[in-house]
# Entry
Amino acid sequence: MDTGLFIALLNPTIALALGAAFFVLWTYQRHRPYLSVLAMSYCFSAAGFLLQYFTLPIGMVLTKLLSNICFTLGACCLSGAIVVRYGRKVPRLGIGVLAAGGLASLCWFLFVSPDLTWRILSMNFAFGGISLLVAAELRPVRNNGPTEKILFVLALLSGVNFFVRTLVVVIAHGPFTSYDGFYSSSYWTTALLSQALLSLLIALCLFTAAALDVMKALKAETHTDPLSGLLNRRGFEERAAQLLRHCAVARFPVALVLADLDHFKALNDVHGHAAGDRVIADFAAKLRSATGARGAAGRIGGEEFAVLLPLSDLAAARLFAEAVRTLYSAGGVDGLPPGTKVTASFGVAARSGEEALEPLMRRADEALYKAKKNGRDSVRLSYERPETLFVPEPSKVG
# Structure
C-alpha cells in the first residue's frame, strides 16, 4: 500500500471509529447528549480529512473549502461537547468568532488572493484559538479530577500544536505555493500524525469520563432509596461516617436525629400500601427540604429516617426536630382522606468526643423509643454519654 495513501487514510479511519464508538455510547446514555455531539465532531473530522485527499466533481477549490468547513464544524462540536461535559457554559461567541474568522480568511486566500501558506496559517490559528478557549474554560475545574486535568493539558497542547508546529514548519519548509508535493511535505505529515495522537488521547480521556459517569450513577443508585429519594441505610452510614471524620478533625459539634412515622402499620392496613408510599415520600420531601445540603438524610428502615447534622449541638438538633415534627403534623398528605393526621416521633442525640456512628445511633434510638412510649408525636433527647472503659490505676507498693 502506498505510504502517502496510508497516512492520508489514518486520520479519517481513526475519526470514524471514534465517532461510531461515541454514537454507540450515546445510544445507551441518551440523557448525555454531549456524547452524540462528540460523535458528530469526529465524523466531521473524518469527512474533512477525506476531502483533503480526494477531490469531488465540484472542483478542487470548492472541495478544499468544503473540507475546511467540515474541520471547523468538527472543532466547534468537539470544543462545545468538552465544555458541556464539565458543566461549564459554552463560549459560543468566542468559538463563533474564531471559526468565522478562520473561514473568512480561508475564503479570502482561496478566491480573492490565492495563497496556500496563508490558508494554512488562517485555519490553524483559528483552531489553535478554539483549543486555548477550551483550556480557559477547563481551568477552573482542572483540579476536580484526573480527566479534567488531562483534558486541560491536552487542550493546551492542541493549541500549542496548531500555533507553534504550524509556524515552525512553515518557516522551515515554506512557503507552499501549490498542492504539488504538499501531501508528502513535512507540514502535512506532522499535521496528520499530531492530530491522530491528540484525537486518540482526547477520545480516551472522554471515554474514561463517560465510564466514570456511569460508575457514579450506579453508585448513586446503590446508595439511594428509590421511594423516598433519600440515602438508603448503606448510603447514609457511609456518608455519616465521612461527615463524622471531617467534624472530628475540625472539632465541630455533630448531632443525630432519628424519626419514625407513628402508627404506620395501621395506616397501611386502613388506606393501603399506595397511601403508605405517599406518606413516606411526603415525609422524606419535608425532611430533605429541612436538612438542605448541610447534613445527610436517609431512610434507614421501613418508616424510620435518620439525619446527621454537622455544626449542630443538642439544642440546635432539637429545634430542627421540633420544626419538622410541627410542619409534618400540621399538614395533610395527598391521597389520604381529609382530616387524616399523620405524625412522627423523634429521638435526638449529640455526639460526645469522637463517638462513632453506631453508639450515637443507639442513644438516639433509645430517645426515639421514649418518644414512642410517651404518646408519640414528640421529640425526646438523649442526655446519656457513651460508656467509657474504667481502668483503675495500678496500686502503689512502697
Q: What stands out?
A: The first helix runs from residue 3 to 28.
